[in-house]
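Reader question, answered in our methods column.
A reader sent in the components of a multi-part assembly and asked whether the whole thing could be modeled at once rather than chain by chain. We filled in our standard form and ran it. Here is what they sent:
COMPLEX SIZE: two components
ENTRIES:
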Amino acid sequence: MGTINTLSTYLEGRVSDLLRLKKEGKKVVGYVPGGFMPEELVWASGAIPVGLNKGGNYEAVLKSTEFLPRFFDTFSRSQIGYWALEDPLYRLPDLVVVPSTDKSIETIASCWELWTETKVFKLGVPHNVESDHAFKYYLEGLHLLKEELEKLTGNSITEAKLRKEIDLSNRMRLLLRKISQMRKSERPPISGKDFIKLNHASFYTDRDFMLKNLESLSKELSEKDGKKGPRIFLIGSSMAEGDYKVYDLLESAGADVVVEDFSEGIRPYWGEIEISDDLILALADYYFKKRTPLPALFRPSTEERSAFLLKLAKDFSVNGIIWYSMLYRESYDIEGVYFGRQAEKKGFPFIKIVTDYNPAENFSLQTRISAFIESITVR
Amino acid sequence: MLVLGIDVGAATAKAAIYGNGKILSTAIIPTGFDIIKTANEVTLLVGKRIGCSIDDIDFSVSTGYGRNIVPFANKTITEITCHAKGVHFLFPEARTIIDIGGQDSKVIRIDKSGNVISFSMNDKCAAGTGRFFEVMARVFDLEISEIGPLAIQSKDPCQISSTCTVFAETEVISLLARGRSREDLLGGIHKAMVLRIISMAKMLGYEKQVVLTGGVAKNVGVKKFIEEEIKMKVMVPEEPQITGALGAALLAEAEFSKQLTSGEK
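And here is the structure of the entire assembly that came back:
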């Protein structure tokens, strides 16, 4: 596929580009892509947002034991591991923004604060989405972030700049949504792995380049049919860039992911920001209240979130649901058990699998995934 | 038509030949270091018992931990699916399988046709597998076959709180030093292990008929404590280690028949 190849080639050189831009005076703002950090603000400040979302490498997990106890969320602990391994992307940021969604993600912020010289901005994300108090708290966080970005870059974030960036980000969401929805087809024109890689690329590519490529990809895909096979909904806490084991195992079992939902690693694309007179308020409204339309696993409530996910399962005609958990991300384990039972009640075969990125787990993951696909194939 | 199912597990390799609606031969040998050699040996043995060789086999399915490297298998299928088919053949009323092997344990829910509804597996921790009992038998200087009968003689099983095999071994040694009887200690060890398996079954949901398979199903203590815990009778096949290989043979027959019908063979 032409556009996918173009993007892959571009990504190989993207870190060098970022290094060059930084040398030329551009500021780089790293962030944990859990969907609560409005990158429009960063673009509008003249800095470059870079999603820090790597995972899947056990070496980073092992390295993190120098800083953290062993029993801690695989994805979150990996982040300081990549920094310690001197991954160039993790050495670029002048500022790291961490939306504090739970204790695991909060610890990413603590690690940056304790072990690096990089400045950290913690963006508070309260749990009770429906309360005015919580909304005001998040909104105030965005105002503080705006000030921080203006201080970092020396540029002021004007209404005109922010409006332009919101338009561009809305365009990005619209294109990703359009491409994602093509997977409702019996023969999805794009594989699950390519789709998640597109998402991951969108966290650190040049946005004009990305938009141009998403446009051309969308045209290419509209004329293409993919493979027919068991259709999987992949759900979990984190789908990190580089952690594509489950996608590969599913593909080798003849199945594929046709829809996914993660707290970290996927750009929320189900809605768009409604431009209003107060643009920061509009950002808060979208990112905190309306984004998927429900903000995150599992805000405001597990019941509502489950209903939304089961609707997606139906809309995308999935044959089975895989809950992909990070080892020691306990809150998601708890929700996973509840959601699994709701899914089975609605007739969706369900399995939970857990990873700590250890290559030793490859065979047992293969067995679980193959057995799951075997079981749904005979139904 | 002669079909072969071969289940190369972490501790033992099992094979079954099926034909004319009957199980014609079965064999079990320890899994050696060389999996291909083990697969060849168990196949030779299962064939020898009825005077046939691999050349007489129309179709074979391999399963288990070594399934992908059995050189002569026509197809590989996971042990989850194979156990389900094998148990369904022996116990058509079975709806839940508890399989405790040498290095893993699993709970499988099946429907009335022997298809898998859902499953849960523990293959990351030795506690909850046959390996746990091997370590404990060594502490008491007993054969693995001796510990179950002693465990059921316990009147007051000890509480073993450690959930790790290594720490449980230390805990048992310390309780021995405090003068607790061998029977009560073994009773406690069996209960601790069974509680791990049953919590997995409860999480998944189980219903009768429950069938216990795998090498550990030969342990009468495990069966008794599971029955006490779930308040339900548990069925054990005459040879509980063979269900995976049997299921593989049944799936081999189905696949071969399908290929004959479609003209592929």
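What stands out: Residues 17 and 321 of chain A are 39 Å apart (CA to CA). The mean pLDDT of chain A is 94.
Send us your own complexes using the same form.
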